[in-house]
Amino acid sequence: MMSAFTLSRLRLTVQVIMLFFTVYGGAIVGHYLADKVTGALPALSCAFDQQNAGYCVLIPMQHQLHHRVGESIVRAQQFSVEYIIPFGFTMLTFFAFFVVLNKAFCGWICPLGTVQELAYKLGRRLKLGIRRLTQDTVGRVRPVKWAVLILLVLVLPLMAGLGYTSYVTGDAYCQVCPSRIVTTLLTANTEQIAVNTADTTAFLFSAARSAIFGFILILAFGMRQPYCRVCPMLALHAIFRKVVPLRLAKVDANDKCGKCKACYQACPMDIHEVAFEFGSKAFHADCTMCGRCVEFCPDDGVLSLKLGPVALFKSSGAYMKRRAKIDKPDGTLPKKKTSTQPAPAE
Asked: Where do the structural domains in the chain lie, given as residue ranges?
């Protein structure tokens, strides 16, 4: 008997396919074609994985700031069109990809996001404890991703290009990104987990990278998407989330929402706004477009994933009842029903 369709199953299928594509794509399609894919979609996976078929958009952004913008200021003491144009095209390719997927990159494609989600599912099957952040804690964590974007992705690479900081900071974010370890370990490459002792800066960055990876991996067994909350890619997507057609939508009518808070319970990012706000305010900057809030909303048509005016998936009470048989909003498995029928007489 075929299993009933659920958005989560579809998303997990896409996540697993994209995980294999971003990690092993180069080996599957050949490195020549992989280079072509990389040029067309420069937002897929870690550049340190030598077998992949794409790379994270943050690496060319940092390299352009380091090798193009920063060094051009030193040489010419002014921004030259010769160096600004490559950086502009780096951003344009990101925007082109972003217009298609919006923040769904985080919830459906990102290899690190997929690994965290699989770790959480394993934690539920092992019946490990669940750790959720309170609204106050979430409020304190949210600014971190913006600080990481500004300091590690933008400022330090530019400072390296200007000659004020070590060359190691030319890709400062990639030096500490746990995705660098996750994707390479999946190809049996252990080089990125080793501590670099070339100099003090390299040692500190590599030690921090390994520590962050271990910490995130342990957290992921009991907390949903721990690293996504501080990831600069989420911040980069959030800046333009309201100007692209793919988005989360909630009806702007208080009386149509049953206020059961199931959407908030289902949200891996602990976004309380999805339960308490209406209209565009419910689509928060931390949303990864995973669609779990829509799946677990029992009110017909209150929440939806939309592409422009077209609703791709709407909340439905009937769907929610089927969905709840697979897992609860927080990801725990439902209790198996025991038979209450009396035993047959001998």
From this structure: 7-236, 245-323
